[in-house]
Inverse folding.
């Protein structure tokens, strides 16, 4: 069994939740912090990473020790030994430190330089790739070919004497006994990084892009699909598919029975254009596309036809997305519209999704008129047979920041509309 560190993206809560859902069936999660998650199991890190939207790097852990000063140049050299065996030309190697102090970063920088001098005497001409922040981006790792050559040091909250494969290590009592400062250090080598070129292509490379529709970033679509626990054999529907980001990511994840519907014929035409391109670029299956209003979907598809719905229905009108001024009555109007749309989705969804099936839905959070307003009337969805699935991350990471109703929120600095991510299960009747 191997131990891996999954390095989280910009929104640690979302990244952790996605990892917990995706990794729990495959092994044991032994630690979660705001920077990384430690997992023990047999996996293919490259394949798993390509399906995760919220993880930027995976390192295979080789050591767990008490103090950073326990990590020596010889240990580092030992970790790089197979890469050093047949070096041709300059040997590039690097280091990243997660959860450490400025002094820790300096210490590793000095060690890296001392390793370079040692290699020179062998003689192996080497370059140590590092930066002031002490963290190399996925771009830097990929551009400098640092897979298996980037040392990753991570400061955890578990003391090193606890075995990393002991799931009981994650109880809150051991965590509080350990305390942040008592936490040990993990050392490993990067084995996979997020493919930024592929994401760029899947986002900006699509032929039909329509900013006014409110486009979901492909990484977020992946997170949502993972939270819904969709499987390759499932029948999936996005009833507000727009240009088709969710459908696209489902197809790229290997799903073959995917439906996208939208009331706007122009959106379906854009989606069609995007899927022609996707098929020729990535060899994906073709999805089923149709122009339908959400209100009529229960008449268009058989009862319980779908295993899951994953969707982002509404992010506010274009004038909000383009940040123009909004009045109190504009906002009341928007909230009324939102409420009608989501009520229809939950009503129709209940008939379309199999009992026990999932619905992952993004709600808009309006950050306007000096306040933050959540949307949707959750108790009315519960009343018709939906059950909200609470995020699981607090079990591993109790300090997680969630919305007042305990859900995950995704936003970027200065965004007028943030996104609340929710997962629901249709209860058996
Ligand atoms: C936020 S966009 C979806 C964007 C999509 N997730 C993407 O990334 O490309 C919402 C879509 O919902 C559609 N829509 C709005 N009201 C609808 C309704 N009543 N029934 C079906 N689709 C609707 C709009 O035409 C729009 O394309």
């Amino acid at each position: 069994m191997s131990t891996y560190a999954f390095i989280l993206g910009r929104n640690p809560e979302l990244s952790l939740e996605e990892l917990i859902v995706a990794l729990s069936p495959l092994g044991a999660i032994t630690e979660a912090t705001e920077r990384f998650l430690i997992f023990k199991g047999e996996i293919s890190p490259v394949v798993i990473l390509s399906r995760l939207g919220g993880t930027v790097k995976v390192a295979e852990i080789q050591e767990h020790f008490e103090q950073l000063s326990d990590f020596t140049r010889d240990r580092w050299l030992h970790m790089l030994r197979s890469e050093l065996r047949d070096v041709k030309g300059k040997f590039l190697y690097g280091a990243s430190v997660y959860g450490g102090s400025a002094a820790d970063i300096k210490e590793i920088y000095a060690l890296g330089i001392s390793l370079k001098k040692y290699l020179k005497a062998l003689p192996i001409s080497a370059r140590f790739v590092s930066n002031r922040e002490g963290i190399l981006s996925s771009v830097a790792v990929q551009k400098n070919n640092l897979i298996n050559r980037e040392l990753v040091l991570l400061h955890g909250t578990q003391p090193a004497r606890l075995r990393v494969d002991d799931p009981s290590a994650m109880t809150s009592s051991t965590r509080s006994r350990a305390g942040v400062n008592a936490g040990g250090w993990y050392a490993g080598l990067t084995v996979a990084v997020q493919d930024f070129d592929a994401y760029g292509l899947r986002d900006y490379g699509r032929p039909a892009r329509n900013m006014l529709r409110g486009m979901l970033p492909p990484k977020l679509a992946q997170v949502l699909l993972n939270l819904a626990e969709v499987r390759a054999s499932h029948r999936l529907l996005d009833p507000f598919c727009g240009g088709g980001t969710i459908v696209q990511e489902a197809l790229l994840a290997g799903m073959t029975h995917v439906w996208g519907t939208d009331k706007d014929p122009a959106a379906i035409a854009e989606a069609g254009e995007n899927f022609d391109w996707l098929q020729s670029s990535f060899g994906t299956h073709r999805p089923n596309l149709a122009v339908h209003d959400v209100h009529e979907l229960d008449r268009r598809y058989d009862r319980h036809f779908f295993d899951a719905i994953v969707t982002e229905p509404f992010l506010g009108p274009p004038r909000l997305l383009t940040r123009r001024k909004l009045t109190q009555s504009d906002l009341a109007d928007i909230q009324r519209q939102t409420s009608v749309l989501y009520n229809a989705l939950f009503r129709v969804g209940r008939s379309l999704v199999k009992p026990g099936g999932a619905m992952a839905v993004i709600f808009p959070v309006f950050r306007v008129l000096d306040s933050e307003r959540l949307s949707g009337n959750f108790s009315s969805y519960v009343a018709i047979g939906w059950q909200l699935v609470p995020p699981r991350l607090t079990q591993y990471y109790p300090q997680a920041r969630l919305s007042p109703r305990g859900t995950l929120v995704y936003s970027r600095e200065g965004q007028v509309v943030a996104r609340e991510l929710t997962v629901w299960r249709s209860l058996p009747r």
